[in-house]
Amino acid sequence: MHSPFVYEFVTRGLYVQKLPPDYFKINAIRKELLKNNITLTIEDYGAGSKIFKNNQRTIAQIAKHVALSPKKATILYKMINYFKPQNILELGTSIGLGTTTLAFANPKAKIVTVEGCQNIYQEAKKLFAQENLQQINSIHSTFDTFIKGNDQLFDCILFDGHHTFEATIRYFEYLLHAKHNHSLWIFDDIHWSEDMEKAWHVIKNHPEVSVTIDLFHYGLVFFRKEQQKEHFVIRV
Predict the structure, then answer these.
(1) CA dist 175 to 15, 146, 151, 216, Å?
(2) What is the pTM for the complete model shown?
(3) What is the DSSP letter of 43?
(4) How far, in whole angstroms, is CA 136 from its chain's centroid?
(5) Which of 11, 102, 167, 182 has its CA 20 to 30 A from that of 35?
(6) Which option is the CATH number for 4-233: 3.90.1170.50, 3.40.1080.10, 3.40.50.150, 3.40.50.1360?
(7) Is the CB of residue 172 less than 8 Å from the CB of residue 190?
(8) What span, in angstroms and rounded, lies between the C-alpha atoms of 206 and 52?
(9) DSSP H helices in the chain
(10) In the chain, what are the domain boundaries?
(11) Rounded to whole angstroms, how far apart are CA atoms 124 and 209?
């Protein structure tokens, strides 16, 4: 590993063992969601599910099969806790487990989270209210509609929905105006399908991208002009 920037992140961020008490709230919330058997009708605007065959599923099923896994929650928490972005955009709220992870990892952050499915959006809002997470601005909208109306800069963007090549690249290109030199972009499930593998390859080679880190579950993108272009693969 040749980059001091990446080395510091890995050793002081990803490999840190002792985590703040807020981290452990995430598993408690997940356990409660796994008990919730309310059935929702889902409007799926993304690539579809590899598990569910229809648009009916319980909150418990979503928590088990779709929402942030314990391992991914730990990685996401460590990343946000290390970089401490102040303005975060999340594309794909789901039932809100990932959003609460962002909020717990950096309580001072202002978070905008966008969800297209009305029923899931409403359930996530209940969770945010229950946890008194007032720093979260939850928006019911398709990603395209939100992005086209956005003129804000973000320190961090989490792309967690619509896992197709065309949509991922479209959102990437639409949001380039929302980055700055120290922005961190996080792409979920970069190895989920051939489409996502292809999208990750295109993003890595974009001329405005300087450093990428492949964590298998996530792909991290940096735009630091002072860094030479390098790609890292790190297993956590």
Answers:
(1) 30, 11, 9, 23
(2) 0.93
(3) -
(4) 14
(5) 102
(6) 3.40.50.150
(7) no
(8) 34
(9) 4-9, 25-33, 59-65, 70-83, 97-105, 118-130, 143-148, 165-174, 194-204
(10) 4-233
(11) 32
